[in-house]
Amino acid sequence: MPTALSREEWKSRTSRLIYHNKAFINGKYVDAASGETFDCISPIDGRSLTRVARCDSEDVDRAVRAARRAFDSGVWADMAPNQRKKVLLKFAELIEKHEDEFALLETLDMGKPISFSQSIDVPAVVKTVSWYGEAIDKMYDEIAPTPKDALALITREPLGVVGVVVPWNFPLLMAAWKFGPALAAGNSVIVKPAEQSPLSALRVAELAVEAGVPDGVFNVLPGFGETAGQALGMHMDVDMIAFTGSTEVGKLFMQYSGKSNLKHVSLECGGKTPNIVLSDAPDLDAVAKEAGMAIFFNSGQVCVAASRLLVQEDIHDAFIDKVKSVGRIMAPGDPLDPETMMGTMVDDTQTKRVMGYIETGKSEGAAVVLGGNRVMEESGGYYIEPTIFDGVNNDMRIAQEEIFGPVLSTITFRDPEEAVKIANDTVYGLQAILWTNDINKAHKMARALKAGTVNVNNTDGGDITVPFGGYKQSGFGRDKSLHALGKYSQLKTTYIKLS
To answer: In the Cβ-directed half-sphere of 360, how many Cα atoms lie within 13 Å?
Structure first.
């Protein structure tokens, strides 16, 4: 169970925290080859937590060589499945043992409330790693239905060296969604965390080795996307890139694959989730609370943030009032205070981006009915209050583009057909949400919505057992579930002619 600590106790722990700030290559912490570093800034107060190794192409080469040597040696890829299972279960156990440390790292590095880091992020990391560990010795290969004079074996083999490039909104969890199944399948892994939030990935690497993951199998390269990230994407000896982030950068990794060795690419990109509330929705007070959490949780820095609220016209005014009440409660506060419901933006750049979209919404003619301001500037941190626009048309930029902040656009519709049309009118298709008491409407609308996940009467359903990914420019490939294991392996057919 998570430790119940006060704000003062968390702050005290902060002063004693040790930051791992070097690259992790071949089982050891090492400086970047260039010796260069960059400031790791906490968005809570704008101060530098530490200086982190700034890796570039030379470091990528070092990590890839180590990962390839480990893979070709078979020290991990050829390890008996039940042995790999034991290692991953030990890895999960060690993460859980240090859960308070990881929660604190995530909060300091990214600015999310400590209560959420503790109760959501870190337990989900533990669950992910342990679940894929348990899955290892439960996956079977196949025999094809051949004639009696032949035998066809269909077997899965690991891909080789997998580059994992992840964002800053859920730093360790997004990495675990990828390195968990990649390791389970027998691959070597190189994690490139976002430059805004590298600390938890660097710490977890040490625990991987302690758990028994062989040297070279788990590597972490902190650095910037245009250097370390691009070098991974272009490397001729990387077999796959598993990416979560913006659609813009996802398209770059597709280009890198085509320009290099045609490596596998799995993309989980942007989203613009429609949250559709029909007038027959159950318990509008509860729905309003869910709608508020679905956009203001993690300060709106969530790929499936329900940033478009579609409300049937006959309940629009009353329902928006309820959502505004939720927004008022979720005012930003000190992320190290367990009572805080909403923390910071990740950095100054993202803060300016979100504030720019708020100004754009105003200029487009939408009405700010709640928030719209940067707050707590005296702290030195990056805080924006919950913001709600009403009177939004779906062709406005605030309704079409991923803002990645606590900004909600509300849109009115007449009937379910119009709601589906508006919901699908976007380049994204990661998730959709639907509230109704009518099971027939629910089924018909869910089938018509172009999204990888449709949540009916909930905003964030599912666990590690169900696949997660998108349609359209939200990317392709699936994280979570057994389907993820498939993308980190390749099929081999061995066709034997019998005499």
So the answer is: 16
Q: Which CATH number fits domain 274-471: 3.40.190.10, 3.40.309.10, 2.102.10.10, 3.90.1150.10?
A: 3.40.309.10
* Residue 491 backbone phi and psi in degrees, to 5: -85, 135
Segment 174-180 mean pLDDT: 98
Q: Is the pLDDT of residue 1 over 70?
A: no
Q: How confident is the model at residue 2 (pLDDT cuts 50, 70, 90)?
A: low
Average of per-residue pLDDT values in the chain: 97
Residue 268 annotated to the active site: yes
Residue 6 CA to residue 202 CA, distance in Å, equals 26
Characterize 406-437 residue by residue with b for buried, 16 or more Cβ atoms within 10 angstroms of its Cβ, and e for exposed: bbbbbbbbeebeebbebbbebebbbbbbbbbe
Nearest to 411 by CA among 392, 435, 424: 392
Catalytic residue among 99, 106, 268, 385: 268
Q: Point out which residues pair with 164 in neighbouring strands.
A: 191, 242
Note if 303 is an active site residue: yes
Paired strand residues for 489: 158
Q: What is the pLDDT of residues 223-252, one digit of tens each?
A: 999 999 999 999 999 999 999 999 999 999
Options 106, 303, 385, 402, the catalytic residue: 303
